[in-house]
Amino acid sequence: MRQILDFGGINLIRENRLKKLAAELRAWGFDGIYLGPSTDLEYISGLDTHPDERVRGLMVSKDAKCFAMTPLLYKEEIQKAFGDVPFYAEWNDHEGFTDAFRLGCEKLGLVGKKIAFNDGVRAVDMLAIRDTMDIRLCNGAKVLDPLRSRKDEEELDLMRKASEMVDQVVYKLIEFIKPGMMERDIIKKIPEFFEEAGCYEMSFSPIVASGPNGSMPHYSGDKRVIEKNDVIILDLGGRHNGYCSDTTRTLFVGTPTDEQKKVYETVRRAQAAGEAAVRPGATGQDVDRAARKVIVDAGYGDFFFNRVGHGIGLAVHESPFIIEGNDKPLEPGNVFSIEPGIYLPGKFGVRIENLVAVRPDGTGEALNHTPRELTIVRNG
Fold it and tell me: In the predicted model, what is the mean pLDDT of residues 71-95?
């Protein structure tokens, strides 16, 4: 039987994370960290909430003690997430939050100490704290990166399931897309297909970039009508129990031209080279270089102008980043995208994206399994 330790009502998995966070704080030389609404806070407490003008969150000290900041408006929600923490610093709208924050810091002996703040805290609120109490504010945006970037087996299983769901959606889109529909018709259908797969929350707003719109990697429009012989980039993902999926496939509506075939095959080989570069001792930079070399050697280097990939977990973009300059060795439990692309202005774009998890032996496990070979939609 597992022993439930009293770290403020947070369940055993979160308690282990809390203790690891305290160790990170000591390594950074911080006395505490305040986590505002963010995926950092979700990682420690399970609370999925979004920042606004009402300050709420969790303070964690370097000896793993904590207090919760809660406006009365959110008290019930926060108590359900945090449980019986040693101290709730409660405040209401007409009082403001700074007195409650100071009282919580006094309880943990943090007045006058070095306190890190994560990126879930608004700058205006940090300035209000600085102006009303003796505290040394520090940048805590990366404190949790080493913890969150190394997924345990439970997290990996959630991400495998999330990736299985998005793969199901891609297969349905291959059957659904046809000339004459608008990009927005596809975008509207994607959440429906996710729900059919058992997923009820998107990782991000999906990208459907057809024809010349595909040369814009993060195209956000939806009004173009799909035409015969179009190239379509689909970039989509859903969240399963908080953990994100993210995949990109490029589909063809009708017979591709020789140029389109050449570009597609170049990107396919680049993506495969990136995956093959995930091996013991490899760095994010190594993976970026392996994929990028294929594109540069084919003469398209000027049309691939972003990093090869990004880490993913509770957030769709997190550490580690697969980019030139990241010379830190990849670690077991890291999960990241490998998504090279070629974007020809005014013509079309091609991107192929798989998520890859680093196994205990240092090799890569692809989490997406839809075909990377050139695919023509069924109704093309």
Answer: 88
How many other CB atoms are there within 10 angstroms of residue 83's CB atom? 16
Same domain, 244 and 331: yes
Does the pLDDT value for residue 15 go beyond 90? no
Domains in the chain: how many in total?
2
Strand-by-strand arrangement of the 57-61 sheet: 88-91, 66-71, 57-61, 32-35, 114-117, 136-139
Residue type for position 126: M
CB atoms within 10 A of CB 272: 19
Residue-range definition of the domain harbouring residue 18: 12-146
Angle (CA) 167 172 173, round 5°: 95
CATH number at residue 83: 3.40.350.10
Instruction: Specify if 4 maps to a domain.
Output: no
Say which residue the tokens 């943990």 belong to. 108
Report pLDDT digits (tens) over 249-270: 999 999 999 999 999 999 999 9
Residue 8 has pLDDT above 70, yes or no: no
Same structural domain, 140 and 160? no
pLDDT of residue 287: 98
Q: Could you please report the per-residue DSSP string of 135-166?
A: -EEEE-TTTTHHHHTS--HHHHHHHHHHHHHH
| Of 111, 146, 181, the domain-final residue | 146
pTM of full prediction above 0.70: yes
Q: Is residue 2 part of a domain?
A: no
